[in-house]
Amino acid sequence: MIADDDRCPCGGGAYGTCCGPVHAGAAAPTAEALMRSRYSAFALGLAEHLRRSWSRTTRPGALELDDGTTWRRLQIVDTARGGEDDATGVVEFRAAFRSPEGAGVLRERSRFVREDGRWVYLDGELLDR
């Protein structure tokens, strides 16, 4: 497990003041903050956070994380809306990883919406690398 004073996998500072509170159940203040928490959840193997932060309209019935993938770095490319007063938001990111097949980069434009006042992941469009 990760300690509060360890560097957060998303690169946003100390885990205890970055993604840790969102993983513990606090509402993410912005779409970008939720996206960062989801990246960190993939890196830490927190499947329950991923399910909980996924829109009930698009959430898969089951979610299996790939233990062989190591998430190495997150880069936020662009954001549109997704602030504290918005109902929707878009976050484009690049996530570097290493898998048994080798190194790679996942690039996605993710859409977020509010459900019951909380940001959730709606869906994403994979972009060319």
UniProtKB/TrEMBL annotation:
The lineage of its organism: Bacteria, Bacillati, Actinomycetota, Actinomycetes, Micrococcales. This is UPF0225 protein CLV52_1866. It comes from Amnibacterium kyonggiense. Residues 30-124 form the YchJ-like middle NTF2-like domain. Gene3D superfamilies: 3.10.450.50. Pfam families: YchJ_M-like. Belongs to the UPF0225 family. Coiled coil: none annotated. It comes from the Bacteria.
